[in-house]
Fold this sequence. Notes:
With 97 residues, this protein is of the alpha+beta class. Helices cover 39% and strands 15% of the residues. 1% of the residues are buried.
Amino acid sequence: MATFNMHDAKTQLSDLVARAEAGEEIVIARRNRPAVRLVRVAEIAMSEIRDARKRIPGRFAHLRPTMTEADWLAPLPEDELEAWEGRYSGDFDQSVP
């Protein structure tokens, strides 16, 4: 097990990754205290990573059955469009930048 301080690890990162891929365990220390281990990722863990990246329906998935394509493609109301473009259309004083 080899130990490197943070500065050395930054300057030799590609070499350290190659050593970890070859099976060596690398410890990276911060202020001479071990902080993290750099180890090769097992093949089974890679499949878990790929599964975690799959898209999961987000916050608005519940709206999908109630909204039509026309709802998504409809133009914005003028006041909302102005707000998105940085112009404001409200009852407040617009003289303040």
